[in-house]
Amino acid sequence: MKHQVKARIALAAAVLSLGAGVGLAGMAMADAQRTPSPAGAEVYFIAPADGATVSGPVTVKFGLKGMGIAPAGITFDNTGHHHLIIDADLPPVGAPIPTDAQHVHFGKGQTETTLDLKPGKHTLQLLLGDFGHIPHDPVVASKKITITVK
Questions:
Q1: Cys-Cys crosslink for 52: which of 26, 48, 109, 146, Cβ 3.0 to 4.6 Å?
Q2: Which stretches of the chain are assigned E, i.e. beta strand?
Q3: pLDDT attached to residue 33
């Protein structure tokens, strides 16, 4: 009986260890597949300015330095497309950027948008994604800005 309990504990430990190893290998594989970005690449807001008070709808214009824009699914060196993060933190870098109300994709290569934001304070941040919507290595993200909508 004692041997059966020890064997079950050993089996459970092996399964947990294997699962953790596979999980870590998967994370390393996702990170290994990230597209490189050149040194000095920057994404930034042309408008609105950090701290601005604006009326809705809000026009947001994106800027990019040191890289080019390519639509999602198209692979060219040193290119990507914009993602706008609204009222949220940056997503994990080793996985595709989520698609929801807080993570807006511009996979056709757009460089501006118009947002209907509720009155109040909002944060905005830009994140460049590669052909598969995965952040580059190193990550190309803007400073998070805060705007107030009247």
A1: 48
A2: 42-47, 53-54, 58-65, 68-69, 79-86, 103-105, 112-115, 120-129, 145-149
A3: 87
Helix (H, G, I), strand (E, B) or coil at 75: coil
Question: Among positive and negative, which fits the CA dihedral 70, 102, 113, 49?
Answer: negative
Work out the number of other CB atoms within 10 angstroms of the CB of residue 75: 10
CA distance 65 to 111: 13
Q: Name residues of the chain where pLDDT drops below 50.
A: 1-30, 32
Q: How crowded is residue 36: how many other Cβ atoms within 10 Å of its Cβ?
A: 12
Distance CA 130, CA 97 (A): 10
How far apart, in whole angstroms, are the C-alpha atoms of residue 40 and residue 138? 10
Cα 81 to the chain's mean position, in Å? 11
Strands 53-54 and 145-149, by their bridges, are parallel
Distance CA 8, CA 78 (A): 52
Place of tokens 């690449």: 41
